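Re: [help] complex structure
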Amino acid sequence: MKLGVCYYPEHWPREWWGDDARRMAEMGISHVRIAEFCWSRIEATPLQFTWEWLDEAVAVLAAAGLKIIMCTPTATPPKWLVDRSPEILAIGADGRSRGFGSRRHYDFSSDLYLDESRRIATLFAQRYGHHPAVVAWQTDNEYGCHDTVVSYSENALRRFKLWLRQRYSSVEALNTAWGTVFWSAEYRSFDEVALPIATVTEANPAQRLDFQRFSSDEVVRFNRMQCEAIRANSPGRDVTHNFMGFFTEFDHHEVAKDLDFSSWDSYPLGFTQMFFLTPEEKKRYVYVGHPDIPAFHHDLYRGTIPGGRWGVMEQQPGPVNWATWNPAPLDGMVRLWTWQAFAHGAELVSYFRWRQAPFAQEQMHAGLNRPDRSLDQGGVEAGQVGQELKALAARVECMPVPRARVALVFDYQSIWMANIQPQGHDYNALELSFRVYSALRCLGLDVDIVPPSRDLSGYSMVVLPAQLREDSALAVQLASIKARVVFAPRSGAKSVDLAIPGQLPPGVFAGLAGVRVLRVSSLPPGVGVSARTANGVVLQVSRWREDLECGDEFVDARFENGAPAVVKYGRARYVAGWLDHDGWVAILEEAAFDAGLEPQRLSDGLRVSRRGEYVFATNFSPNTVAWAPADVAECWLGGDVLEPLSVSIWKVLPSLTALARK
Ligand code: GAL
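Output below.
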């Protein structure tokens, strides 16, 4: 459990570097991420390099005992490169080139930019790859940030055609897969295919899906190139990339295959304001953020690496500048977010950024320090965690993150399918995944968020909130394991080509789920329907509802008209509507009991995580909460009474299960 910080020596006078490094080390920070936007300072003119300042910065940080996460600077191609080769610019959906002057203006499909990126990444890796203080690398910065995965360029079109040729071999196969006989859209050759843009109305959905798959593969290709350049010149160092929150434009599981550990950038207050939360939730969580937003991503990105190595590369330190509103977090939140990440298994929490920049785009974004070099609240709290870690480090060598007993399956291709065909304005597969996850966490359950291809044996419960895509291998796996399985609506609703499965949804999952979906309805806001379970629990359904065919004896909950709302068939449950929070809690609680788990409804704002013999409790609520595991061996931090925004850590007796005692 290490602390880090993002540092931009190029933003500050050299006379400050030594003092900055000393203070970082004093605070308990051990890792510093540098250089991700510094291309213009290294190569101001083509092939004329100024390494000396970065050499010195590395030396100063290393002299203070700090370890360095070096970045490749490819998120910001410099002006001379853009002017010399404007074809490296991505083309937006409006058909115009992305302008110079911010960042991420490049096109993943530009071979020329790939070559330039390989060149600069190689030079960085050759120069710093063997430096003893350089322990890890970050490729680029936040692939896809500012909506930059997809490009509608000539380069993208050329490479998309190649990609299609490889996927389909014959244009007839493509025509069949896309169903181009519809609206006379048949192609005579791959050359005739265009990008799915500027059509009069909706472009062909299978074509859009393939374009998304292709665009995702372009990110994989770009990242792989950088990983290879780094590995060839910097042996033994970890390579990572910093992913984003609520971002699904490329398949992170595929990108992560080339990484040693995953990392992501956690801005809980910004995400709370910017994403799908209700106005009430945005208000309620304005100063603390929704507690499950960081947790969801911690578990998602932990799951992108089979060994589970991950960290937070950028942690919100105070108010940010980019959300619709940018409130300051309550005092205590920076510490709480840090401990929450460790509770989910982070090996690093790195704050963005050391000092607030008084100039340029992000001057309103806090750092651990203010622009005048004084310590800001985030810095005070980072220092506190530093002290706490020091105290713990003396006693703990390793806190492994064992497998959870609950797996939540997350499939990027299914998310794309739902985005292409939402059918109802507010059917949002990412949101549903988050809501289901949140319900599991409110039941005190630890969750692994895994790709559909992950080995699921050993899990007690597997939840599929948004597995729209038929996946035969997954269906076979689910049939062969012993876990309880919970299917949300739209499971198996689409073939791999984004068509309706021949035997109707849930397609390949029908054998396990014991249902057929005959009809679906999306419901506008304010229109809902209720259902009642066999145990008398009333479920509220909004947004989405399905008409199921199934054996009557398997119906576990019925809509008001008697139609099945939840079907319990063997080990599986199929839920035929979009439930609210309480509904998911009720259904998942029953499933968890059936699975032999011990769900417990936690009080509002309390979250509990287990790392082997260690139990963490975090209190996000404004109230004091009394909670402790049963079978405590030792309390390491905090205690049984959790003040608002506080954390407690216990070591529990190894052989016994932790049960709540109120
Ligand atoms: C991240 C990005 C950083 C910085 C930060 C501000 O998305 O990686 O460079 O812009 O946001 O919150």
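The domain at 606-661 is CATH 2.60.40.1180 (Immunoglobulin-like).
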